[in-house]
């Protein structure tokens, strides 16, 4: 059990739910024209299964990454980060493959239940669309490093992380509640996507030399270490700027800018990356950046809600 927990890479899980939290609380704090109260918009069932589905996708991605890089030999003695399960031999490729199949099934089941709670027997078109989206997310989680056509080996990992853990996570879950897309929510959705890509970029900066030797042609391998740093600054700095713009366009009061507290660890992280000369020392920054993104999502959602105590009371008394 200890080895399976390590293979699930718990430090990546807070990052994966950041978009779910922001998209959900935005729905709670912004009732639509047809749904006028927070308790009509928000559903604990949708929220719970959205979290469960996203966590399933993240764990599936981690299992598949361990398997794909393990059987390809990418995870070897040259790798800087902690040893993976297959690399160290504590889990066999056959056992990991079975775990991938089981996790895929459970994640798809969770997605189907989520879709049912969101749309019920109505909105058949939406249900089919989100079912296909869920299947696409599962395939994307597996194909990152698994197979001869693994897109992570062609420098496309950043794009898929941005789409699924930024746009789909934030805008998708919000649509499950509101049944419409709010253009303003695109700003924090893109910001979370950029921060998620930042975590992947940091991982690839750490593993640049071993990835290059193994033929894993990540964006960092393609552009080199120095340009990868500037790319990283753009990802994190761009995310911070977008959230500020979101707050301004949302007409936030001064006390609603509490989320800028998360900019302190993010700024410290950027300084650390700027000064770094040894890729091995970037490994602790992965957890710090993931937790900073999670902190930003929590603080931002608190800032989204006016009269938060009344809304929470209503949810517990009348929420679904």
From TrEMBL:
Pathway where it operates: Quinol/quinone metabolism; menaquinone biosynthesis; menaquinol from 1,4-dihydroxy-2-naphthoate: step 1/2
Function: Conversion of 1,4-dihydroxy-2-naphthoate (DHNA) to demethylmenaquinone (DMK).
Chain coiled-coil ranges: none
Keyword terms, alphabetized: Cell membrane, Membrane, Menaquinone biosynthesis, Transferase, Transmembrane, Transmembrane helix
Zinc among keywords: no
Enzyme class, broadest EC rank: transferase
Molecular function GO terms recorded: 1,4-dihydroxy-2-naphthoate polyprenyltransferase activity
Membrane topology listed for this record: Multi-pass membrane protein
This protein's name: 1,4-dihydroxy-2-naphthoate octaprenyltransferase
Protein family: Belongs to the MenA family. Type 1 subfamily.
EC number: 2.5.1.74
Reaction(s) catalysed by this chain's protein: an all-trans-polyprenyl diphosphate + 1,4-dihydroxy-2-naphthoate + H(+) = a 2-demethylmenaquinol + CO2 + diphosphate
Lineage: Bacteria, Pseudomonadati, Bacteroidota, Flavobacteriia, Flavobacteriales
Record's keyword annotation contains Transmembrane helix: yes
Pfam families for the chain: UbiA
Subcellular location: Cell membrane; Membrane
One GO cellular component term: plasma membrane
Entry's Gene Ontology BP terms: menaquinone biosynthetic process; vitamin K biosynthetic process
Sequence intervals crossing the membrane: 12-29, 41-60, 99-119, 125-146, 158-178, 184-203, 230-250, 294-317
InterPro entries given in the database record: MenA, UbiA_prenyltransferase, UbiA_sf, UBIAD1
């Amino acid at each position: 059990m200890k080895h399976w927990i390590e293979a699930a890479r718990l430090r990546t899980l807070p990052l994966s739910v950041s978009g779910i939290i922001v998209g959900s609380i935005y729905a709670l704090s912004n009732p639509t024209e047809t749904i006028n109260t927070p308790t009509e918009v928000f559903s604990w069932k949708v929220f719970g299964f959205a979290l469960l589905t996203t966590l399933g996708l993240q764990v599936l991605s981690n299992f598949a990454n361990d398997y794909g890089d393990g059987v390809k030999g990418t995870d070897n003695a040259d790798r800087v980060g902690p040893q993976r399960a297959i690399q160290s031999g504590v889990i066999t490729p056959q056992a990991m493959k079975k775990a991938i199949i089981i996790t895929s099934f459970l994640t798809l089941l969770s997605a189907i239940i989520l879709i049912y709670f969101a749309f019920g027997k109505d909105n058949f078109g939406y249900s089919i669309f989100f079912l296909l989206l869920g299947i696409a997310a599962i395939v994307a989680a597996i194909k990152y490093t698994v197979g001869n056509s693994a897109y992570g080996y062609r420098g496309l990992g950043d794009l898929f992380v941005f789409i699924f853990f930024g746009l789909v996570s934030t805008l998708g879950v919000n649509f499950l509640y509101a049944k419409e897309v709010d253009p303003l929510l695109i700003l924090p959705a893109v910001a979370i996507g950029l921060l998620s890509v930042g975590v992947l970029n940091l991982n690839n900066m750490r593993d640049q030399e071993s990835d290059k030797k193994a033929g894993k042609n990540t964006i960092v391998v393609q552009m080199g270490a120095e340009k990868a740093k500037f790319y990283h600054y753009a990802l994190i700095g761009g995310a911070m700027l977008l959230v500020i713009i979101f707050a301004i366009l949302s007409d936030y009061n001064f006390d609603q800018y509490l989320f800028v507290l998360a900019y302190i660890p993010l700024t410290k992280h950027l300084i650390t990356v700027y000064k770094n000369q040894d890729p091995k020392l970037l490994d602790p920054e992965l957890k710090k950046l993931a937790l900073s993104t999670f902190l930003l999502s929590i603080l931002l959602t608190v800032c989204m809600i006016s009269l938060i105590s009344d809304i929470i009371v209503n949810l517990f008394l009348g929420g679904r």
